[in-house]
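Hi all, posting the design record for the shared folder.

TITLE: backbone redesign
STEP: 1 of 1
STRUCTURE INPUT:
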């Protein structure tokens, strides 16, 4: 396989894809030469490595710069920035005059009516997209397909993107549910840190899925954008006559004698000539209306065809987003449960603090009485040897009664159940 640098997107004899992988690795290594980060080229380089896939499933590696791609696909420079791996842009699908710009996760490509120009990368989704598209095109080469080439390429990009996001959601579910269950049963710093990390991953994945969903919803709501994406029809119209023009020519020249629109008509001529010219003019108008109706009906059918395609994957991505929302709700429920448990523990601590405070107050009263009688002063009570013992017994009984009075009061006020 050869690398084309002399002219843009060559259309010579197709090559086999069996020896393609080794050349792709060499091309990727050559593109990454001199860069500190694998898979990223320096900004000073004018050309990048691209993969061209034609309608027959043939693959070629090309070294192309932005100017050539812009001229060939009639794209502005801002659209090519969406495909630049040095920039991080959300998922986007743009319909242009001659191409569809697709930036879905790692799949970044330009789809035309005849070929797919895919950014060369060793990412898993890119390799899978390339191999699967070639396989489908080569398998259905001799079979009729209802979808045009650009829709088949777009469908595969949507399919792989939805599958990749759904796989990531499933992996997150497998990881997050056991951690949340463990946190609900054992609240500690390690489990809280794990949940915090997983919640950050969940929010980032939700934003990515939400952007893909919003992009599909925006396309389905705008008939003009969907009509712009039907590249095969626009190409056929640009190469030949439109249906309205063909019908007008057929109806106008259907008779044995053709009347020229520029031929002068004598005002004194018979009325047959004027009637004939009027009938010819009315036939042109009616055929033009009929052709426009056919064209609009075909356009409506094409838009409906694309809308059904987008709607199918919109349902898939919406289901993936609903699973992420379910995960978020499960995390919120776990957080509420943890807050309830922490609140319950705090209530128990407050109850214990009330009991301890009441006991401390009673003990302080007992210690005060004992301290008073421990002073060195003259009193008649000291004349009796058992007098001090009676004082201690009476004071202790009073303190116990006071403590139980506090407990009954707390129970009456329903501060805590006893």
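Okay, here is what came back for every position:
SEQUENCE:
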């Amino acid at each position: 396989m050869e690398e084309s640098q002399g002219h843009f997107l060559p259309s010579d004899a197709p090559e086999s894809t069996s020896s393609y992988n080794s050349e792709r690795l060499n091309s990727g290594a050559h593109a990454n030469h001199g860069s500190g980060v694998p898979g990223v080229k320096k900004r000073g380089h004018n050309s990048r490595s691209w993969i061209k896939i034609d309608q027959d499933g043939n693959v070629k590696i090309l070294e192309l710069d932005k100017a050539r791609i812009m001229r060939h696909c009639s794209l502005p420079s801002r659209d090519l920035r969406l495909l630049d791996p040095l920039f991080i842009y959300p998922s986007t699908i743009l319909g242009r005059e001659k191409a569809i710009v697709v930036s879905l996760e790692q799949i970044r490509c330009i789809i035309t009516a005849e070929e797919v120009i895919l950014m060369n990368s060793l990412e898993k989704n890119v390799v899978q997209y390339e191999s699967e598209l070639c396989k489908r095109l080569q398998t259905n080469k001799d079979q009729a397909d209802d979808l045009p080439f650009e829709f088949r390429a777009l469908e595969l990009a949507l399919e792989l993107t939805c599958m990749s996001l759904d796989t990531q959601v499933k992996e997150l579910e497998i990881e997050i549910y056991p951690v949340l269950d463990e946190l609900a049963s054992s609240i500690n710093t390690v489990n809280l840190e794990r949940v915090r990390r997983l919640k950050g991953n969940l929010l980032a994945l939700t934003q990515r899925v939400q952007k893909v969903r919003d992009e599909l919803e925006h396309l389905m709501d705008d008939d003009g954008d969907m009509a712009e994406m039907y590249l095969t029809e626009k190409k056929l119209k640009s190469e030949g006559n439109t249906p309205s023009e063909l019908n007008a020519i057929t109806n106008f020249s259907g008779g044995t004698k053709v009347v020229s629109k520029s031929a002068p008509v004598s005002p004194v001529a018979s009325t047959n000539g004027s009637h004939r010219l009027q009938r010819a003019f009315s036939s042109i108008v009616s055929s033009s209306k009929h052709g426009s109706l056919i064209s609009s009906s075909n356009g409506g059918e094409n838009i409906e065809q694309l809308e059904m395609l987008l709607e199918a994957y919109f349902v898939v991505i919406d289901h993936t987003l609903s699973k992420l929302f379910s995960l978020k709700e499960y995390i919120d429920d776990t957080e509420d449960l943890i807050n309830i448990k922490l609140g319950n523990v705090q209530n128990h601590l407050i109850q214990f603090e009330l009991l301890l405070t009441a006991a401390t107050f009673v003990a302080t009263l007992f210690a005060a009485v004992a301290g008073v009688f421990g002073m060195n002063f003259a009193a008649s009570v000291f004349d009796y040897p058992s007098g001090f013992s009676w004082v201690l017994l009476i004071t202790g009984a009073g303190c116990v009664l006071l403590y139980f009075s506090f407990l009954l009061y707390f129970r009456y006020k329903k501060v805590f159940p006893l």
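COMMENT: Residues 271-373 form the longest helix (103 residues).
Let me know if anyone wants the other runs.
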